[in-house]
Specification:
483 residues; mainly alpha; 2 domains
């Protein structure tokens, strides 16, 4: 393990990420809130480290698999620390555990918050808060599509499968093209939603902040009541639709554009399954809310059901109403939707649709095999038959993912919190959903947790975002052995 090369690579990444601090710095300069220098501090710090890192002679192109994995994990742990220092410098969040939790939540696009009065913070700080979503969202997608196949961990099961299809179709054959295509789609969706929200009546500032949080399926809002503060059906529908668009595989947009065919987009198995789940869940939730008398008409029931189903299925975390008093069935459905998640290659969390489909298909085939013991079956997605090693990897991931969720929920409950709060907080953090149930519901936040619990939940957010294996692999003795 060449730690000097790892140091060089990490510092370069941190410096490039730190250029995003220029967004709130420029805004702060024009509104003259006196925080410009505070936002520039992380950039100056990483710039100084970069001068030191450039003295390392090894070329970054020479990095091996283990070193690359360590670089990825360190980058995801350290950049939130830089953001936390920025929060502390501005005075917005003086405590490091609180600032780190808020930063990790932003960078992992979780949307959980320790802030009790969001609107009291300077606008430049809230802009940075939303920017962490936008940077983290595109960062994860590029990481998952570009780097995971090389590392052979976490979500690499699907990435290898998709990479084979991409080569056959000669679509996006190189990493640079993948990253470029994703960034183009990401920016186009960002511009489109910003324009629509502005036309719907939001100020440019509010439109940009909520777009950053929507496209990244993050959930940070500039309002204490989240999206509910706008009391706008149009705003809720726009954000609801774009949450769904952000939860789909971003590379598919580019493929559909290249082929000039929406068939490429809507025929993809993850898109079909995700949209069907959202549709069915919305219909069920609408009918339950209406017939149980929560809302006086079907349109109002649909309005709130569609938004909360979209925010749960995309693991965004916005709230258009305080749904904590909704029927238990609907609340349970929302939690299940967040666990399933959306498409791979998107900014959303959860186990992802392709793993859910594999789990579902394998379970059905095993039930059939109980009836017909000699049955030999295969599992396929789209037109591709999946090999046994991939299926084993998927089941291993699901096992570790749910075991982690339960373990962290149990540890949190040791502090004396009720089970609904403890386990929904665990689910909300590992799935990147943000709000949960109980004390961490849409009307609450994570401020009441102890510093230890906040750091523990920060770790769980990172585990969920990096799909558990990359972080857990660092605890294996084999990882630190010489190659």
């Amino acid at each position: 393990m060449r730690f000097t090369l790892v140091f060089k690579y990490v510092v370069i990444i941190l410096f490039l990420l730190s250029t995003s601090f220029l967004i709130p710095a420029v805004y702060s300069f024009f509104v003259k809130d006196g925080l410009t220098e505070d936002f520039l501090f992380p950039l100056f710090l990483t710039g100084a480290l970069l001068l030191l890192a450039l003295q390392v002679k090894e070329k970054v192109s020479d990095i091996n698999v283990k070193e690359a994995l360590l670089v990825v994990v360190l980058s995801w742990f350290l950049f939130p620390a830089l953001s936390a220092l920025c929060y502390m410098e501005t005075g917005a969040i003086p405590s490091f555990p609180d600032a780190y939790f808020e930063s990790v939540s932003g960078f992992t696009t979780t949307g959980a918050s320790i802030l009790t009065n969001i609107e009291a913070l300077p606008k430049s700080v809230l802009l940075w808060r939303s920017t962490t979503h936008w940077i983290g969202g595109v960062g994860f997608v590029v990481f998952s599509l570009s780097l995971l196949p090389l590392l052979g961990t976490g979500g690499a099961q699907l990435m290898r499968f998709e990479a084979a299809k991409a080569l056959e179709e000669r679509v996006l054959p190189r990493v640079k093209e993948i990253a470029k295509a994703i960034l183009i789609v990401y920016v186009c969706l960002t511009v489109a939603e910003t324009v629509l929200l502005k036309l719907a009546g939001l100020s440019l500032y509010e439109a940009v902040n909520h777009t950053f949080a929507t496209i990244a399926t993050g959930g940070f809002s500039t309002k204490n009541q989240s999206v509910a503060a706008f009391h706008s059906f149009a705003v809720e529908m726009i954000i609801g639709v774009f949450m769904i668009l952000g939860a789909l595989n971003l590379s598919l947009y580019y493929k559909a554009f290249k082929k000039r065919s929406l068939k490429t987009f809507f025929s993809y198995y993850e898109v079909k399954s995700f949209l069907i789940i959202v549709l069915v869940s919305t219909i069920i939730s609408t009918l339950i809310l209406y017939f149980d008398g929560y809302y006086k008409d079907l349109l109002t029931s649909f309005r709130y059901a569609f938004f909360q189903v979209s925010t749960a299925a995309s693991t965004t975390g916005f709230a258009s109403t305080d749904y904590s008093n909704w029927p238990p069935f609907v609340l349970a459905l929302l939690m299940i939707l967040s666990l399933i998640g959306a498409s791979s290659g998107s900014t959303a969390g959860g186990i992802k649709q392709f793993r859910f489909l594999i789990m579902l298909k394998t379970s059905i085939k095993e039930i059939k095999k109980t009836i017909h013991p000699r049955l030999i079956y295969t599992i396929s997605l789209g037109d591709k038959v999946l090999d046994v090693s991939l299926l084993n990897a998927v089941w291993a991931f699901i096992s570790v993912y749910f075991s982690t969720t339960v373990l962290f929920g149990l540890i949190i409950s040791l502090s004396g919190y009720d089970l609904i709060t403890s386990f929904s907080a665990s689910i909300a953090c590992i799935t990147s959903l943000g709000p949960g149930l109980g004390k961490v519901g849409p009307a609450g936040n994570f401020a009441f947790f102890s510093s230890f619990d906040k750091l523990l939940l920060s770790l769980e957010m990172l585990l969920g975002r990096l799909e558990v294996f990359p972080i857990y692999s660092l605890f294996m003795i084999e990882f630190w052995k010489e190659l």
